From TrEMBL:
InterPro entries, alphabetized: VWF_A, vWFA_dom_sf
Organism: Thermobifida halotolerans
Gene3D superfamilies associated with the record: von Willebrand factor, type A domain
Pfam families (alphabetical): VWA_2
This protein's name: VWA domain-containing protein
CDD domains: vWFA
Protein origin, superkingdom: Bacteria
Signal sequence interval, chain numbering: none
Length: 646
């Protein structure tokens, strides 16, 4: 009987993870666009902020900073110096203990030699290198000290060398020397243009155990070694001048004793020449209590540098920033596999927004597609209706589909139609095509036909939205855009027989298509040219003479601009008398068309109040003073109530 074993899945992304909702991510992106952000900025903010079920770049950057603080608290950088001093004092103490019982002159002479040792550990170690130890324990401790220095210096230059040099035998040192000679020769050959991948493969076959990160070619090896060398220099720069001088002298002496000083110097010069762009200077602050060895200290400094680069890439705050700039392997090393998967899911989200047809254009100049604009309109409408506690089409009606009397004719169904289906014609179309291979009669979209009705209740809807700079200053810009998008979505999807036009106005007015409205950015323009907006609205009503006229105005200020005879806008504050006269003249024309104007007044301004009172008196319309946060629900409710009355 077979058995089953359960464990953590580690073969790529988790196939059972809950999928993220691209449409809800688009809604979040759309809200930023509606607030005035460009699609490019909105996407960048979305990726930084994250969305439902998806961690953003800001959270990853926060965890990177926490990792850096944890690393800085790991220990001090002078651990090798501290350990060298301890072993030196231990060896000298063991030697004195062996000399003390001996009454001979040789013992006193040796004690005098120990008394005269320099305070500088490097100088003391150099003088003791030729000392004939009386105590075997002292000799062993001193050998441990010298071996420690060799291993720490090599580990600082070659990450993981401490493990490769665990035995510290003469054969190990000879092999390190052979590796350095081969590496320098390979770099010289590359400078002459004579290096091949085969040369590198043979080098790795012989010395690959010295390089646990397993570079694939010479460039990767040089990059790794240069970063390690630069980190070593930054680690030295982090010490006090006295500590730095001591450690440099100990390192130089250790390499000279091992016969590696010249090869190490040549390698350092070549690495610096190949990667001058690296940070070869500048210290770091470490505030831990334990002393770190030279190799571990260098590794900590190198990791801090990697974390700083990673945090900058995650911030995406530089020109041309892309998610591809973030190194997923670096994220995995710093934060683990789950964080790297979160980064990949953000990349998938960006791809899905394109693949599902919501975004188009270059990365630094994204555009919303018509599909995305429709979705934003639906979202704006849903938000508006949820704020009002209602739903689209919640008014009473006794008609099925579009209002109006049946004409007796039919036509093919189109998306958005609300007319009643003609079941007989629909089934007849399917029957003429015949059954499928299984003998079943199947309906297709092109089979459907709807009954035509007379459009006796159709409306020509004009929404005039103030886009002047005062709307921005009063934080009304986003609410106005949301209202316009919601109204357009309501009419387009629930009342397709109506004709809707959105007109924005500041110093001049213009008709805004849904995409233009969605991507409209903040405009620091003074002027409230309601005169021009009413002119454009009148043209829309005149193009639809059989429709009921609906004119809605959203504004926070009295008219301060008008259109001159030559077509040029003229701004004046306080408002010129001619501005008021021309605007009220257009109001009178609206009245003659039978259009009653509803003004949604968004500011407690005596001048605005005076103008709106005059407008309502001449037109017979009305004034609404909504809460700006619920502007959309007031406008939508107003339109729905008009349709309900019809």
């Amino acid at each position: 009987m077979g058995g089953f074993r359960y464990g953590r899945y580690d073969d790529g992304p988790d196939p059972l993870r809950p999928p993220y909702d691209v449409r809800s991510a688009l809604d979040d992106l759309g809200r930023s666009v509606m607030a005035g952000a460009s699609p490019t900025r909105a996407l960048r903010d979305l990726l930084r902020r994250g969305t439902r079920g998806l961690t953003g770049l800001d959270d990853l950057a926060r965890r990177i900073r926490e990792r850096g603080r944890e690393l800085r608290s790991r220990g001090r950088l002078d651990g090798t110096l501290e350990e060298a001093r301890r072993l030196l004092d231990q060896a000298v103490g063991q030697e004195r203990a062996a000399l003390f019982p001996d009454p001979g002159d040789d013992a006193r002479l040796r004690e005098s030699e120990l008394d005269d040792l320099p305070a500088d550990p490097a100088a003391a170690i150099r003088r003791l290198s030729d000392y004939r130890w009386r105590s075997p324990d002292a000799r062993e401790t001193f050998d441990r000290l010298r071996d420690l220095l060799r291993r720490e210096v090599l580990d600082a230059q070659f990450r993981g060398m401490k493990q490769a040099m665990a035995r510290g035998t003469p054969e190990d040192l000879r092999r390190v020397g052979a590796m350095l000679d081969a590496l320098n020769a390979m770099l010289d050959a590359d400078n002459r243009g004579e290096h091949t991948q085969g040369d590198f493969d043979r080098f790795m076959a012989e010395f690959g155990d010295f390089f646990p990160d397993n570079p694939r070619d010479l460039d990767e090896l040089v990059d790794s070694l240069a970063r390690q060398a630069a980190a070593t220099q930054r680690m030295l720069d982090s010490l006090t001048p006295e500590q730095r001088a001591e450690l440099l002298e100990l390192s130089r002496q250790a390499m000279e004793d091992a016969g590696l000083a010249d090869a190490m110097q040549r390698l350092g010069e070549r690495l610096r020449a190949r990667r001058p762009d690296l940070a070869w200077s500048g210290g770091v602050d470490m505030d831990g209590t334990a002393g770190l060895g030279m190799g571990d200290a260098t590794a900590a400094v190198a990791e801090l540098a990697d974390l700083a680069e990673l945090e900058e890439a995650l911030g995406q705050g530089y020109a041309g920033a892309r998610l591809d700039d973030v190194d997923a392997d670096a994220v995995r090393r710093a934060l683990g596999r789950s964080a790297a998967e979160e980064l990949e899911r953000l990349r998938e989200l960006e791809r899905e927004l394109r693949d599902q047809g919501y975004l188009s254009g270059a990365r630094n100049r994204l555009e919303l597609t018509p599909k995305a604009v429709r979705r934003l309109g639906e979202t704006a409408l849903r938000d508006v209706l949820s704020a009002s506690g209602g739903r689209a089409g919640s008014h009473e009606t006794r008609d099925v589909g579009a209002a109006g009397e049946l004409t007796g004719t039919t036509r093919p169904w189109r998306f958005g139609d609300e007319q009643p289906l003609d079941a007989v014609r629909t089934l007849a179309n399917a029957a003429r095509r015949g059954p499928d291979d299984g003998g079943r009669l199947r309906l297709r979209a092109d089979d459907f036909e709807v009954a035509e009705t007379e459009r006796r209740d159709a409306a020509a809807v004009c929404l005039l939205v103030d886009l002047s700079y005062s709307m921005v200053q009063r934080d009304l810009w986003g609410a106005a855009k949301q209202t316009a998008m919601a109204l357009h979505a309501l009419v387009s999807t629930r009342f397709p027989q109506d004709a809707v036009e959105i007109i924005g106005f500041n110093d001049h007015a213009r008709v805004l298509a849904p995409r233009e409205l969605a991507e409209l950015s903040l405009e620091p323009v003074q002027g409230t040219n309601l005169h021009h907006a009413l002119l454009l609205a009148g043209r829309h009503l005149d193009r639809h003479p059989g429709f009921e006229p609906v004119v809605l105005v959203v504004t926070d200020g009295e008219p301060t601009a008008h259109l001159e005879d030559g077509g040029f806008p003229l701004f004046s504050y306080p408002p010129a008398r001619r501005t008021t006269e021309l605007t009220l003249a257009e109001v009178d024309r609206m009245t003659r068309r039978g259009a009653r104007i509803t003004v949604f007044s968004l500011a407690d301004d005596p001048r605005l109040e005076e103008f709106v009172t005059a407008l309502v008196a001449r037109n017979g319309g009305r004034t609404v003073r909504p809460d700006p946060d619920r502007l959309g629900s007031y406008v939508v409710r107003d339109l729905l109530s008009r349709r309900s009355r019809r």
